[in-house]
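User: Structure please.
Assistant: Input sequence and predicted structure:
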Amino acid sequence: MGSNTPELEEKMEKQFVESARACLENGDRLLSDADVLSSSPTSLALAVLAEEEFAKGFLLFLVAQGVLPWRTDVRRAARDHSCKHLLSALMEYADPDVEEMSARIKRFQDRHEEIMKLLDEMRRLPSLREVDGFSEKMALIDKQNALWRDVAVLESEQDAEDAFPPSIADAINILRHTKIGRWECGYAYDDEEYDRKVQAIADGARDREKQRGLYVGVDKTGAVCSRPDGITEERVVEAVERSNRMRQALQRFLEHGCAGIEFDRLAKNLKVMFATLRS
């Protein structure tokens, strides 16, 4: 949208937000139907369908924010089941719950305090000029090095926490390279080994589970291999709860905008990853 006039860009942004709200409303309808059917296997299928609508709304929100371009292959991703399930994983990362955020902030504060204590301890050490004797000087150097190593460990822990979890990094790469990259170039140009659960999502595991909630499965011999009534009530509850979390996340994004460290980190990464997407 960058080559358009400011007026047109504002109009398009509103249009994408309105479309995202329509996805939210339709997802709400599907979730309401899932609640009516309670623990029925059909309830699971409806919950997954609702989650797909919320994920599509998230994609449209990202376009409205200028994070993703509204190009052919991104539009195709909005219709692809596994792409929407990958987007659902990204949306969950971008909207952590309050307890998780509080725990992360506390870990940051604790590390910061520990680093400051180590630095204070270093400042209190005498300089080499103030120490007599070779062994005393070496002991001082060893102490300084030990303190710096402790600081480096704490900083490394913080850097690791600030980075994407491996599963989220994998979801981004699969979405961009394996899925959209194949549509863009005619082939997938990455041969990485990804997180098993994320790879399963990309391979359609959630979509197949949705299908199992609706249809009898028949294998190549003609024998029944799955029935909707084989889905447990526990799995139905999990699907409905997950879909509700996605609904709340999308609603928060649409009502309050894109605030938060996780969303900002995700948005910056996606913007770079999709900057080279062909028209």
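The longest strand covers residues 224-226.
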